[in-house]
Amino acid sequence: MTPYEELIAHTRETYLLAATGELLQWDQETMLPPGGIAHRSRQLGQIAGLVHERATTPRVGELIAASEAIRELSADPASDSAVNLRELRRDYDRATKIPAALAREKAEVAATSQHAWVEAREKSDFSLFRPFLEKNLELARKTAECYGWPADGEPWDALAEDFEPGMTAAGVSRVFVPLRESLRKLLGELMAGGRRPARPFEKIVMPLAAQQAFVRHVAERIGFDFSRGRLDVSAHPFCSGHDPGDIRLTTRYRDNRVGDALSSVMHEAGHGMYHQGLRPDHGGTPLGQPASLGINESQSRTWENQVGRSEPFWRWCHGELPRFFGDAAAGVSVEELYAGVNVVGPSLIRVEADEVTYNLHIMVRFELERALMAGDLAAADLPAEWNRRYKEYLDVVVPNDAQGCMQDVHWSMGAFGYFPTYTLGNLYAAQFFEKALADLPGLTDAFAAGDFSGLKRWLNQNIHAHGNRYRPADLCQRVTGKPLSPEPLLKYLAAKLKPLYGV
Ligand code: ZN
Fold it and tell me: Are 489 and 431 in contact (CB under 8 A)?
């Protein structure tokens, strides 16, 4: 075997172990009886330890170096071998830059501070969470120092690299600042408009079994392949991608709120179709993985929003309702349903926010975590600064910290640099969809007929099949011919929402 062949064989085995851990995690969220949690934690800890050991063994470093010395493997930076070496070098360097003691301390602090966060949020008492946040921040700064960042960068960049390779705080800001101003203006116009859509789904009685059958039908129709995937129930919806042949989606159901289950299933199915569209022959190597969290999120948002909140989709979907809900939905028109899934308005909670305000929620978090990481904001001042920005950006008064700066789990886990990937996903989704519309005339007319195969094929060819070949910024440039810009998202939102709000 050549060093490169040995490296890939070793990597495939490590990925197999990691995927086994993911499957155990899926089982924990969907099937595990409460009595099994302690044993499951030991199983997951054991596997995580083995994966880390295999990924950081000095032999991997030697194999990477020996492969890098063979010129032809990296001559074309977009070749399979060059991409795998690029990613393996990056992962190895990052993993080995963190001392084992720091990695262990981070994992322990993340676990205890998540417990503290749950209690602090229940009591809405920030003082209970503050010491843990401070400890997480201290460890995040240490981690950033181990990774290092470019001379013109900042500590935040070092951590964000885990989630969105190549993205920096300055780069995020360049897109977010103009987006923020335009979104606030659009929100103001919509709220001052003459019309306010209602949420008709809440009036329709929909039994659980019918909801389950209905959302499965939609997921299947938009292109999720159930011979290579499943849909189950969990407390928080997610997509677990073990292999293109085995992709697990989850959702949750609420009485008479099929709109919630529908949008979460379309979202997760979007992630799922991305994973199903990755090339199986690249499985177990970096090349066969999604390009980034932001690109992955663009796939879920495309199906949830660009498709699932579009008028043509509802023209099709409206006709499907009687099959599943009988007469229950008889009094509700296509127009009411379409308007109802596009209700916009300022709110306190990110995960319940609409397409316009969602991004403002993210910007508050990005600006604050950037300041926390840089040492410009003390943890003690987080609640006041959070509340001030919610008033300024969304014009809402935060009544308590549970509905304010303690609503998300991310910072309690030490995940700084993650939040912007959600808005990057929205931006990529809009920019890719704009290109798909230009490439495929009549695309949305097909939606109205229940045919989504054109869009799925386009995404398969332009995004999924590349896997991790191109860095997110390069993929965007390659697919759309332009760097990432706030314009496509703003144009899409204004064109859809202004008529609905009588603006
Ligand atoms: Zn998602």
Answer: yes
**Residue 317: inside a domain:** yes
Q: Say yes or no: 132 and 182 in one domain.
A: no
| DSSP SS3 for 496 | helix
- As a whole number of Å, the CA-based R_g of the chain is 23
Question: In 3-state terms, what secondary structure has residue 241?
Answer: strand
Query: Measured between alpha carbons, how far apart are the two ends of the chain, in Å?
Result: 66
**Torsion on CA atoms 312, 318, 319, 322, rounded to nearest 10:** 170
Catalytic: 268?
yes
Phi, psi for residue 377 in degrees, rounded to 5: -135, 130
Tell me: do 119 and 213 sit in the same domain.
no
Based on DSSP, count helices (H) and strands (E) in the chain, helices before strands: 21, 3
Whether residues 347 and 303 share a domain: the answer is: yes
How high is the pLDDT of residue 379? Answer: 97
Q: How many angstroms does the Cα of residue 461 sit away from the middle of ligand 1?
A: 21
Looking at the fold, whether 185 and 143 belong to one and the same domain comes out as no
Q: How far is CA 85 from CA 4, 65, 89, 286, in A?
A: 9, 9, 6, 9
Averaged over successive runs of 10 residues, the pLDDT of the chain (503 residues) comes to: 98 96 94 92 90 95 98 97 98 94 88 91 97 96 96 96 95 96 97 85 81 96 98 95 94 85 96 98 97 98 98 96 89 92 95 96 98 96 98 96 96 95 98 98 96 98 98 97 97 97 94
**DSSP assignment of 302-364, as one string?**
IIIIIITTSHHHHHHHHHHHHHHHGGGGTT--HHHHHHHTT-----S-GGG--TTHHHHHHHH
The answer to whether residue 156 sits within a structural domain is: no
- Do 266 and 412 reside in the same domain of the chain? yes
- Predicted pLDDT of residue 201: 74
Q: pLDDT at position 25, please? A: 93
Tell me how crowded residue 211 is: count the other CB atoms within 10 A of its CB: 23
CA of 56 to the centre of ligand 1 (A): 29
* DSSP output for 155-179: HHHHHHTTTSTT--HHHHHHHHHHH
255 and 138 housed in the same domain: no
Burial per residue of 41-73, b for 16 or more beta-carbon CB atoms within 10 angstroms, e otherwise? eebeeebeeebbebbbeeebeebbeebbeeeeb
How close is the Cα of 127 to the center of ligand 1, in Å? 31
Q: How far is the CA of 268 from the centre of ligand 1 (A)?
A: 6
Active-site residue identified among 164, 268, 304, 434: 268
Q: Which spans in 34-168 are helix H?
A: 37-56, 58-68, 71-74, 80-97, 100-123, 126-147, 155-160
Torsion-angle region of 450 (φ positive above 0: left; ψ -120 to 50: alpha; else: beta): left
Tokens 């969809």 locate to: 433
Question: Residue 201 sits in which domain range?
Answer: 169-500
